[in-house]
Amino acid sequence: xxxxxxxxxxxxxxxxxxxxxxxxxxxxxxxxxxxxxxxxxxxxxxxxxxxxxxxxxxxxxxxxxxxxxxxxxxxxxxxxxxxxxxxxxxxxxxxxxxxxxxxxxxxxxxxxxxxxxxxxxxxxxxxxxxxxxxxxxxxxxxxxxxxxxxxxxxxxxxxxxxxxxxxxxxxxxxxxxxxxxxxxxxxxxxxxxxxxxxxxxxxxxxxxxxxxxxxxxxxxxxxxxxxxxxxxxxxxxxxxxxxxxxxxxxxxxxxxxxxxxxxxxxxxxxxxxxxxxxxxxxxxxxxxxxxxxxxxxxxxxxxxxxxxxxxxxxxxxxxxxxxxxxxxxxxxxxxxxxxxxxxxxxxxxxxxxxxxxxxxxxxxxxxxxxxxxxxxxxxxxxxxxxxxxxxxxxxxxxxxxxxxxxxxxxxxxxxxxxxxxxxxxxxxxxxxxxxxxxxxxxxxxxxxxxxxxxxxxxxxxxxxxxxxxxxxxxxxxxxxxxxxxxxxxxxxxxxxxxxxxxxxxxxxxxxxxxxxxxxxxxxxxxxxxxxxxxxxxxxxxxxxxxxxxxxxxxxxxxxxxxxxxxxxxxxxxxxxxxxxxxxxxxxxxxxx
Length: 592
Hints:
By secondary structure, this protein is α+β, with helices and mostly antiparallel strands. The protein has helices at residues 5-10, 13-19, 28-34, 43-55, 59-67, 75-78, 84-92, 100-117, 135-145, 150-173, 178-190, 211-227, 273-287, 314-319, 338-344, 375-379, 417-435, 470-491, 510-522, 537-541, 569-588; strands at 231-234, 240-244, 253-259, 295-301, 362-370, 383-389, 391-400, 404-405, 439-441, 445-446, 454-455, 458-467, 494-503, 506-507, 529-532, 547-552. 42% of the residues lie in helices and 15% in strands.
């Protein structure tokens, strides 16, 4: 019989310690510290308590934990001296059936890794779905992580140890994230569709109204119908809209969703997680034959990234009446106008104006999204509550000095445009850090016609400045522009600067943020509040509806807009559970 939380909570200290034996390899001190937090409110609470014990331990203790693990396909496996847990995991990944070449490659990687870091390579070989990584995935990850900084790699090893422990705890308690598995599988199946030129390379790229984009829309529509949505349609800009009707006609709807387009060579979860999590919740309501006092409208937004055309947030913008007709004449890299692409997709341009939503018919808008950053990952937290979507300002500029001979121009006589921009970049790094949550980036720095032996006379650059509130953003912008002027004057340079984008911050509506906070707390997890540095569809709906977002932890240090973007079936399950909790809270609220 599987272990239960009640057994663990009521057992003596010695018995409880024995029940958790083997979760963390040869390290009973972790369970001992975690057990001080009994009673555990949930399995998620237990997992976090154990991870917290590791995170707050000394570096020596953390290194001891890492070194308590065996090498992958190493001497312990050959000698059959692995623990039962490690034997099961390495066997499930096929490491006990390596070919001679695979075994030799892994042995060399083990030797190189130990020489570089001084501890064994740790990887949760059962993977983010729990079904096991392939040997090639393991070897590729092994090779990639050899290039990491030592401190980062130590943290990455610990994160993988936590994932190993999570799966072992699932096994002990007979816990399977069934809905998380379904959400995971939807992502995998949708990722089968990719634009030409990328699909052949195994890369994921889905841009607005391409064949791959339209295939994704069809799949989402099909799954929505299977989930039990009462009405599913593709609207005039390509959004896929599913509606689950309320218990009584005339009631308002909760709107939710995210985008299904991607950046070029992107990840599988950006945007799409916010579609599939509420779909899973609607499916469970339908299976139970249950209606809520409000309806649920899930929108898979057709375009958020602005990759094929310069029309960012086209899908969500159309719902608030912000579709710009001038976009229709934009051309993509192949010279195809948006108008032609829409006609080819069978969309009715004349109906776009009818998509604007009436706020009086909605309760609000909520969105689930992968974090796209390292914060939750570093804190060993699966969920985070978003306090605000950062406002931002972007500029494109040019610093102008004098091109001169690199060998004959003394250092104190130079009018170097590139060095001036580099000085500005260092100032932005320092100034943004003063605010904590502000960020500033010079993402483009280009010396036109630069030469190895010429002092740069021109430097083209960009500025991207963001903060959780407009006042904080504006203070950052003011200081950076003042510093830019001072640098140019001191160095005898001139510059041009053009504002290319300005977006207002979108603070979460307090009541809606509180819904997410209560949901996370209900799961037995600490409530962690954080701003969103990236833009999301929620910031468009914010203009007409109260909104709040929930972030889900990403693996691989939270990397996003990258094929390494990932999350786990367990974290997806927690997102579904949190969303269901919000639905429950809203259902319990009195209606006017």
